[in-house]
Amino acid sequence: MKNRKSLGADDDQNNINISPMIDMVFILLIFFIVTTVFVEESGFRVEKPEATDIRDERDEDKESVTILVDKNNQIYYKEAGATEAISIESVRPRVGQVLQKDRDAPVLVEAEDAANAGLVVRIMDEARLGGAGIISLSGSN
């Protein structure tokens, strides 16, 4: 039993004091909170349209410009139920004719999923040059 140590006053020396470490953690936490810059990122406002089921009778009487682009990149002009194949050069005059009669006539470009996006953008540009203020884009299968 000589090898046994007696428990006594020496036990207090083996404990680790963590108070300075806790103080240091709090000081670092305060430092990071104070030096953090809170940046408010600027964005842009989006006005979402409201869905309505009520159609205005005036909208049904309006003449509209509808241009179709199929998967073979053929361009069609739709007017009063009839569809006519046209070239990209005739988009601007057609839009201009309709907009001379009714300045607020809607312009709609319908493109199938497989249509060339560059061609659709060129058609929209030609419609804008023809005087269209707002051009709607619609996709179909």
Oligomer: single chain
Q: What is the CATH architecture annotation of the domain at 62-140? A: 2-Layer Sandwich
Beta-strand percent range = 15-25%
Helix content: 25-40%
CATH class of the domain at 62-140: Alpha Beta
Topology as H/E string? HHEEEHEHE
Shape: elongated
Q: How many individual β-strands?
A: 5
Order of adjacent strands in the largest pleated sheet: 3-2-1-4-5
- Residue stretches low in confidence (pLDDT < 50, at least 5 long) are none
Calculate Rg over CA atoms.
Answer: 36 Å
DSSP helix count?
4
How far the N terminus sits from the C terminus, by CA atoms, comes to 93 Å
Task: Average the pLDDT over all residues and give the rounded result.
Answer: 80
The name CATH uses for the topology of the domain at 62-140 is: Nucleotidyltransferase, domain 5
Alpha-beta content class: alpha/beta
Biggest sheet layout: 5 strands, mixed
Overview of this protein structure:
The protein is α/β, with parallel strands linked by helices and 141 residues long. The chain has a domain at 62-140: Nucleotidyltransferase, domain 5 (2-Layer Sandwich). Helices cover 33% and strands 19% of the residues. The protein has four helices and five strands; from the N terminus they run ααβββαβαβ. The chain has helices at residues 19-35, 57-61, 91-101, 117-129, and strands at residues 65-69, 75-79, 82-86, 107-112, 135-140. The protein has a five-stranded mixed sheet with strand order 3-2-1-4-5, with helices on one face. Helix 3 (91-101) crosses helix 4 (117-129). The longest helix has 17 residues, at 19-35.
